[in-house]
Amino acid sequence: MSVVTITSDNFEKEVMQSPVPVLIDFWASWCGPCRMLSPVIEEIASEVSDKKICKVNVDEQPELARRFGVMSIPTLIVIKDGKLAKKSLGVQPKGSVMSMFNA
Q: How many Cβ atoms from other residues are within 10 Å of residue 65's Cβ?
């Protein structure tokens, strides 16, 4: 499965109404740590089929960043059944990102 780009237009459908857990990577193109985390996110997206992997560009979607209290990036959140299940700040190794789904 590929990474889904989330905007305010598709947020409800892709995230809140998703039948599977959703990992969202809040990032920005100018953020060095975000660029370090990006290959990990892409790798996870290519390996999982029972979860949805998404990205939100905080510069383009500041209202979504505010909605989840994103104050620094990268921030990862997991949404399950339309509710925030887990939140993590900073670059994480693949295993730590995957373990967020177990929250």
A: 19
pTM: 0.95
**pLDDT tens, 9-66?**
999 999 999 999 999 999 999 999 999 999 999 999 999 999 999 999 999 999 999 9
Query: Among candidates 103, 46, 47, 48, which has minimal Cα distance to 79?
Result: 103
Per the structure, the count of domains in the chain is 1
Place of tokens 């990006």: 38
Q: Which residues are catalytic?
A: 31, 34
Measured in whole angstroms, how far is the alpha carbon of residue 24 from the centre of its chain? 1
Structure tokens at 71: 């104050």
Q: Is the confidence at residue 103, as pLDDT, over 90?
A: no
Domain CATH code at residue 31 = 3.40.30.10
Give the residue numbers spanning the domain of 43: 4-98
CA distance 83 to 59: 24
